Structure formats: C-alpha cells, structure tokens
Amino acid sequence: EAGVAQSPRYKIIEKRQSVAFWCNPISGHATLYWYQQILGQGPKLLIQFQNNGVVDDSQLPKDRFSAERLKGVDSTLKIQPAKLEDSAVYLCASSPRLRGAYNEQFFGPGTRLTVL
Amino acid sequence: AQKVTQAQTEISVVEKEDVTLDCVYETRDTTYYLFWYKQPPSGELVFLIRRNSFDEQNEISGRYSWNFQKSTSSFNFTITASQVVDSAVYFCALKGYTGGGNKLTFGTGTQLKVEL
User: Fold this and answer.
1) Residue B76 reports pLDDT greater than 70
2) Tens-binned pLDDT, residue by residue, of chain A (116 aa)
3) DSSP string of chain A?
4) Chain B residues within an 8 Å CB radius of A33
C-alpha cells in the first residue's frame, strides 16, 4: 500500500513570495491533516479535512495560509505571502476516518520550507 | 487544554545501553489516547504505539516497552539494548476524545543519539 505522498520535498523562497505544497493521502482515507513543524518543536495541526470539508482550522493563520481539498482526495496548502517565521517542515497525514478508537494517522515525508 | 511535556531535549547513549524517554501529559478528558512516534532523519513520522486511558497495562514489543501510569500522568518509553538505528527524534502525543475529531497534541520531542 502506497503511503502519503508530498511534494516538493524542499523549497526555498524569499519572504513575501508565495508557495504551495501538495499532498496525496493514502487511498480511501477520508481524513487529511496538515501540520507545521518548526525546528526543535513537535508538529502543530494547521487544518483538518473530512473528505472535502474543513473540520478544524483554528490554528491556521488565515491571513496568509489557505488550504483546499476539492475532490476529497488530494490537498494543497498555500502560503501567500511568506514570512521568515514560516520556515518549517509541513507534514501531511491521513487517517481512515475522523473518529474511532484506533484512528491512527499516517504521515508523509514532509516539505521543508526555507524562507530567506 | 491538552499539553504534552517531554523534558529531555537530547539523550546520548552508547549502543546496547537501555534508555528511557519520559512523557508527562495534561488533559481534562476522561477518555484519551497516548501515542509515541519516531522521526528519523528522513523526516517521516513513524507510529510506534497507541494506548487508551482505560488500559494501564504495560506493553512490550521486542526491544521497546511502554510504562503508562495514570496516577502520575506519565507514559514513558524504554528502549532495551539500544542500537544505532534507534537514533531519531521521538515524540509523545495525546488525543482527547471529548468533542470528537482526531487532533493530536505533540510534545517537543526527545532527540536520541545512539553511538557505537
């Protein structure tokens, strides 16, 4: 079974530029998550989708970050304009369903963003 | 609010030594789940174990063991006879069950270095 795919793996941009990340979850997984992991910290949830609907985006900086999952499969996360403090690894994860006793999240390899 | 504390930022051991990674959590939920993830240099988070709040039995899986103590809100992870391949960042995470969803709260991680 293929895992969660993310691209690009690395991205370097100047501040105030825009950037987009792509995630393809495990086939059949209804729930998709985007996390931000700043160096030396644990991942922090940015947004959570159930199919193509948003479940939780309380920690998403909506003035500059946006995300969509139009067909309930792939997802893109965009930053516009980027700031220096956005430098981080952006992790995508998926799980089979939203709730449940054993609802493990499967993580992709992440996209490492450097903002200069 | 949920919180996970991993007080050990970095641990260095010599191969074959035993090592324990500490995790202390805070939650108001009566039902919750605790997780450990491994993050090797490749960046992908690898699921290791899940434990629910009603199951305080310790668990052993090969060289790995976990000690869940609800009385002290701790969920510690021990690697027996450590190997170089165990070198990674290890994250403890908590998921509350109240209100649904599947939001994981991560600790800041413990960097484990196993040297020859």
Assistant:
1) yes
2) 689 999 999 999 999 999 999 999 999 898 999 999 999 899 999 999 988 899 889 999 999 999 999 888 999 999 999 999 999 999 999 988 756 545 678 999 999 999 99
3) ----EEE-SEEEE-TT--EEEEEE--TT--EEEEEEE-TTS--EEEEEEETTEEEE-TTS-TTTEEEE-TTSS-EEEEESS--GGG-EEEEEEEES-SS-TT---EE---EEEEE-
4) 102
Name the minimum distance, in Å, from the CA of B70 to any CA of chain A: 19
Measured from the Cβ of residue A38, the count of other Cβ atoms closer than 10 Å reads: 13
CB A99 within 8 A of CB B100: yes
pLDDT at A101: 47
Q: Which of A103, A111, A113 would you mutate first to test chain B, the one with the most B CBs within 10 A? A: A103
Residues on chain B touching A45 (C-beta within 8 angstroms)? 103-104
- State how far the Cα of B83 lies from the Cα of B17, in Å rounded to an integer: 8
Structure token digits, residue B6: 């991993």
Under a CB-based contact definition with an 8 Å cutoff, are residues B92 and B36 in contact? Answer: yes
Residue A27, judged by CB atoms within 10 A of its CB (0-12, 13-18, 19+), counts as exposed
Q: What is the spatial distance between Cα B17 and Cα B84, in angstroms, rounded to a whole number? A: 11
How high is the pLDDT of residue A98? 58
Name every chain B residue with its beta carbon within 8 A of the beta carbon of A31: 102
